[in-house]
């Protein structure tokens, strides 16, 4: 289970870290209170702040860090049952984790839906407008096209429920970079069997790890990248990790030489 804290080392602020978190720095978005940026009623009055945030998260503006690649390595080694993420930055996909292994619990910019006729479209259809500071509109009915990000009060994607059975099947749960404050995501951390170890890698002790700890819980506090580096070393995967990061860096450099890509 992952949250915004795995992407802060990539330069994307989380919500709640005092001072650096998005909620402390929303002055430039011209919104009455932080949560307004993900509220439907506010979006219909003024969609611009949300699209300003979307523009910042444009794929390609940020790169995955060692934490994302560690999760990819778990997948490569056949150990990743599923990655449940709350993040909307898409860096799990960019790191090479296949969509089938992902549950993007709070949605994705990879697709969008017209708020009027409900026609769905791929992300490529709206990015040109967002990058040009225009609110994207439906080609069929002219309604506002909203990226498939889950706003407050909206239903979670179907995949959330589809794969929730993973939790009782897992034999290890790793929770990284989340305050475990948002439900129903947070409660998933209690979905594994009691005998199953749960590892929290975070800046601070959060959620059920604080108020209903289990005897087999392991808590590793501090910076997520530093903690993941330590774990990789303990697992004897340092070389595999280095090779994967090298391979991905080469890929980016090759793409760079070919010119900018929309991906
Ligand atoms: P949050 O509530 O902001 O909590 C982040 C947690 O990560 C906190 O406990 C921090 O202490 C911890 N943290 C931050 N940086 C580090 C670090 N370098 N090392 C270790 N721990 C760190 O974020 P959650 O994900 O728990 O909250 C859920 C919200 C946040 C979801 O709805 C997301 O859509 C939303 N969000 C996503 C992004 C993104 O996609 N990158 C960014 C900001 C917010």
From TrEMBL:
Domain Deacetylase sirtuin-type residue range list: 1-238
Pfam family, one: SIR2
Protein EC: 2.3.1.286
Residues that bind NAD(+): 4-8, 14-16, 86-89, 178-179, 202-204
EC class (word): transferase
Record's keyword terms, sorted: Metal-binding, NAD, Transferase, Zinc
Spans traversing the lipid bilayer: none
Official protein name in the record: NAD-dependent protein deacetylase
Organism per entry: Chrysochloris asiatica (Cape golden mole)
